[in-house]
Write a structure and sequence with these properties.
Blueprint (H helix, E strand, L loop, with lengths): L16 H7 L26 H8 L15 H14 L3 E5 L2 H12 L5 E5 L4 H13 L3 E5 L5 H7 L4 E7 L11 H10 L3 E5 L16 E5 L13 E5 L2 H14 L5 H33 L4 E5 L9 H7 L6 E6 L5 H9 L5 E2 L9 E4 L15 E5 L5 H13 L4
Parallel strand pairs: 2-3, 2-4, 4-5, 5-6, 10-11
Antiparallel strand pairs: 1-7, 6-7, 8-9, 9-12, 11-12
Helix pairs in contact: 1-9, 3-9, 4-5, 4-8, 6-7, 9-12
Length: about 400
Amino acid sequence: MPDTLPHAPAARPDLSFETRMTQAGRAPLRRHGFVNPPVQRGSTVLHASCEAMDAVHQRSFEQVLTYGTAGGPTHHALEDAIAEVEGGTRCLIVGTGLAAIAVPLLAYLKAGDHCLIADSIYGPTRRLADGLIRGWGIEVEYYDPLVDEAGMEALLRSNTRVVMTESPGSHTFEVQDIPAIVRAAHRHGAKVLMDNTWGIHHFQPFQHGVDVSIQALTKYVGGHSDVLLGSVTVNTPEDWQTVRAAYVALGQFASPDDCWLALRGLRTLPVRLKQQAENGLEVARWLESRPEVARTLHPALPSHPQHGIWKRDFTGTCSLFGVVLQPRYSRQDMCALVDGLHHFGIGASWGGYESLALPTAVTRTATPLALGGQAFRLHIGLEDPADLIADLARGLDALPR
């Protein structure tokens, strides 16, 4: 096996997303042998000589074989594929979505720095920021996710190093004006990090100026609720040096078996995502018609407050959205509805083939969140939407009048 592993051939920009996902991370015109790259596991890498080993280690930021934690052929294939999804140049694969958030935050921040984080951020990111990051002498400040360019400008300081974004928020579904935030942050020399798990490929982060894009590959890329993975994608050599150095220092690693499962999931991502998005919109539109529902929090619906921003910046949607019940219903009523659903599992995560329901749990510190009623989140899977609607109808009909 050679020490150097070439990148997979770059897909042509004129090809569709569907075609690119069948080819990314593998030789697209393979005429012999197995279609899929095999799983390759390993820790120790042997070299022909001390000189050869030294030469490889001098290129450790490239896709070379140095030691198992630095990745192998299966990791590199997935790295190339996710970079293709996000429109970046280089990608790191780590063990979880939360690890994908932690690596770049720790890469760019040090004691005495100031970090701005959207108040709608994923709960475990808040836990990381309020615990370890604050504990290392880094100042964390939460900001209104709906901040405009002037508002972001007012929040930035001389020691602000990172602005963390998530759009839409995975429980509140507030859509951030990423280009405006980027313009203000870059004027002050701050890096913009984005959790782009909801956007997947519908939001192309680097076209909008984002420096580091983060995804939980556990979700739609894995697609089957049986793998934990995260990705960190960048678009410049400078950002690659920074995040790669932190990745190596922290000993981050992802199982090659999980990488292989993610590669397999990637091949069906376009068809799954398209069908689930259609199913999700059908269910969301139906919920808007129900008298028990006060609001349906889906950015692709014209009723969403930031629908205009979504329409400007996104090319499509996924199947995760929120539902707010009328104020007359209690949490007990909402939980009884969720508990009684037959086709929705009650559980965290999303992006798999199965539908899920989860009560909304949101912490806010910068801006109050007035949803107006008890809320829950729905992830719509590949079931027939007519069956899901009938299930939800039974639950809503059973609410006290």
